[in-house]
Amino acid sequence: MSVLTRDEAQTRAKLLDVHRYQIELDLTRGDEIFDSRTVIRFTTRADGDTFVELKPAELRSVALDGHLLDLDTLSLDENRLPLKDLTAGEHELRIDATMRYSRTGEGMHRFTDPTDGETYVYTQLFMEDVQRVFAAFDQPDLKAVFELTVTAPEGWTVLANGITELQEDGRWRAAPTPLISTYLVAVAAGPWHSVRTEHRGLPFGIHCRRSLAPHLDTDADEILDITRACFDRYHEKFEEPYPFDSYDQAFVPEFNAGAMENPGLVTFRDEFVYRSAVTDTERQTRAMVIAHEMAHMWFGDLVTLRWWDDIWLNESFAEYMGYQTLTEATRFTDTWTDFGIVRKAWGYDADQRPSTHPVAPDPEAVPDTASAMLNFDGISYAKGASALRQLVAWLGEKDFLAGINTHFARHRFSNATLADFIESLAAATERDVHAWADSWLRTTGVDTLTASVTAQPGEWTLTLDHAGSRPHRVTVGVYDRDLNDSRALLLRERYETDIPQQPAPEPRPGPRPALVVPNDLDLTYAKVRLDEVSSETALRGISDVPDALTRAVLWNTLRDMVRDGDLAPAAYLETARAHLPEESDLAVVQGVLSFAAAQVADRYLPGHERPAALATLTSLCRDLIRRTEDGDHPGLRLIAVRHLIDVAAQPDTISAWLSEGTVPGGPELDPELRWRILGRLAVLGAIDDAVIDTELVQDPSATGQEGAARCRAALPDPVAKRAAWDSMFTTDDLSNYLFTATAQGFWQPEQTDLVRQYVDLYWNDATAVAARRGPAIAEAAGRWAFPAYAITPETLQAGEQCLTESTPIPALRRKLTDQLDDLARALRVREA
């Protein structure tokens, strides 16, 4: 597939004004293809040539201004249909084509539910996949009105950006949209189970596969309550009303992202329809995604970026508003703790790799759509949201929202750039927002704030050494030991300070604190290094800190120190073993256990130390399970059970759970826990194909199919490994989700000798499958199929050779670059 360059987009935008699309889709043509007929009405401002994007299985006819073009002489080069010798004025282009369904979550994805045989289709058109569904001038700044008609099988419901109605002729017609970008057009069709309501005069709906209906119904009130609360809160913040005629949320199968902000029809991965027990933090994550996508209705859909260098304007804003609005409007009032320990770590990691980039890169750094796709990462989301949070702390929320509302008013139903955004903010404040933007949005890397404390009788002084270039406003937390309970820490005070510290910091009254925490409320984006006394306090008493967000800051500090070689991995495990059994915040427990197992035990410790690390984590999880026997902390117990399964070195305990169908004292094993146990037993060689097949009979769902694929790939058997490898890299039959599940099972730390031969095969095979199957599979091959546990200099050398001597497509090249940097870091940590 060809990529659109920024220069081409600018040239086309100068030439064209696109008015309206009329799109007719026929979804009754069978399992492989559908019909797509498109009429585009546009004006050219001058005489000239241009092109329209289209990737057809068959191009049947093209008519320009009523004249059929000769298909024999029409060159469809790299999915571009040339339009030559256009004269200034109005034009009409009609294209009739047959298109292919996708199995990779791109374009028009088709899925047949193995539970009941029902079929569903939905679009994901982001960046450059519109051409897989209909002909278009596909770039974000050529907005138009879209009229959509869909012919669907009997019994199906069709959802779209606007309200849809079934016509007398059997076709579904969607209300015309306002001006929107091509990549935001959406269709979702199938025998959906729907829950509908109305709020503030608008129809609201949530939709899922029929086989998930009982699970959606169970959570429908919660999902709709979150939706209404966020909708109302945004209308308190934003002066511009919701700009579309309805609000549907469709939970769709095999979705590559978390969700997509299509106006009026947000699509979510249907794992958010929980069919097994989940923690309250997982419910909070779903709620945050709902809030995030709704924020896009204004920032992204109403006002859209002009070119993809400003993708952060969409994602950073929605990320920040999602967490903040959830905190303000719902029962989830501690969302920033989860952000700090999960999302922010994602940003810190991305920002320390060679592939880092500014939150707002220079336009020249995003020359085409392929390079733009690479910026959907922890920087555009987590770092950008952190920057906006720091901006609000510095600017004040009142001025921030005033600037945002100015931005909406100036650019509604149009496009905008970073410069436009900054000008809108500058109009609301006397502060130098342009200088702030240069420091925060145009630079790369993570600043480090290193604390040192000096004490004199009756006073103490904090000095913060600043490695980096950005200004920061931070809150400093000052803690003392409780005189009545030596294990407890009490907050003495919090105060704000600006960095760089000018003039020199002044002494503060009182004795030297036991713990001083820079960035105590996590309002800025920077690594923190504690002073020597505070560091010792944190290692010995992190569970004594009263506030969960402060504990998250401290755990992140310890995590950074391990990654930088400043704290031994074993010391991190010891701290987790000592203090996590006392932790009450679910996000903190989940985040620390995940890092301790997936990074410390599996990658940062040498292989001969891993059994002891697993034993430590097993003991920790058992303590958490014992602590929650009273049933008062089901979420904490579920996290502990999941992680005990994952780190089990022997099969006896989890095999007994599987046989009995329950963990003693609960929880009973639901499908997620059963497949989790089977996955670990497969790794340990304690089950065979027959056991997997039996379980699949009991759970033939899509999730069950993925669980079975994961288990089969994890079996410590050469034949099973070869079959799994061939299914990923030879046959091309796996959907995006089944490819990922197979890859997740294939590489295991316990099986490095068994799969050693595949490390050498990976580089060529991954490059080839990415070239054949495109960016979605390239992403999965780079993320999940990478030999992450082959932590040797030889693996690093082979990977670097692949990057220099082969030509992996950009999506795979980026993943390999990041994976190899993580591998090099693991080697450094082992050597520290």
Automatic annotation (TrEMBL):
Give the Enzyme Commission number: 3.4.11.2
Which CDD domains has this protein been placed in?
M1_APN (cd09602)
Identify the residues that the record assigns to the Peptidase M1 membrane alanine aminopeptidase domain, covering every copy.
224-440
Name all ERAP1-like C-terminal domain ranges.
515-824
GO molecular-function term, one example from the UniProt record: alanyl aminopeptidase activity
Its cofactor is:
Zn(2+)
Tell me which InterPro entries the record gives: Aminopeptidase_N-like_N, Aminopeptidase_N-like_N_sf, ERAP1-like_C_dom, Pept_M1_aminopeptidase, Peptidase_M1, Peptidase_M1_aminopeptidases, Peptidase_M1_dom, Peptidase_M4/M1_CTD_sf
Q: What are the UniProt keywords, alphabetically?
A: Aminopeptidase, Hydrolase, Metal-binding, Metalloprotease, Protease, Zinc
- From the UniProt record, list the reaction(s) this protein catalyses: Release of an N-terminal amino acid, Xaa-|-Yaa- from a peptide, amide or arylamide. Xaa is preferably Ala, but may be most amino acids including Pro (slow action). When a terminal hydrophobic residue is followed by a prolyl residue, the two may be released as an intact Xaa-Pro dipeptide
Q: Which Gene3D superfamilies match?
A: Neutral Protease Domain 2, tricorn interacting facor f3 domain
The segment(s) forming the Aminopeptidase N-like N-terminal domain are 88-184
Q: Which family does it belong to?
A: Belongs to the peptidase M1 family.
- Protein's recorded name: Aminopeptidase N
Q: What is the lineage of its organism?
A: Bacteria, Bacillati, Actinomycetota, Actinomycetes, Kitasatosporales
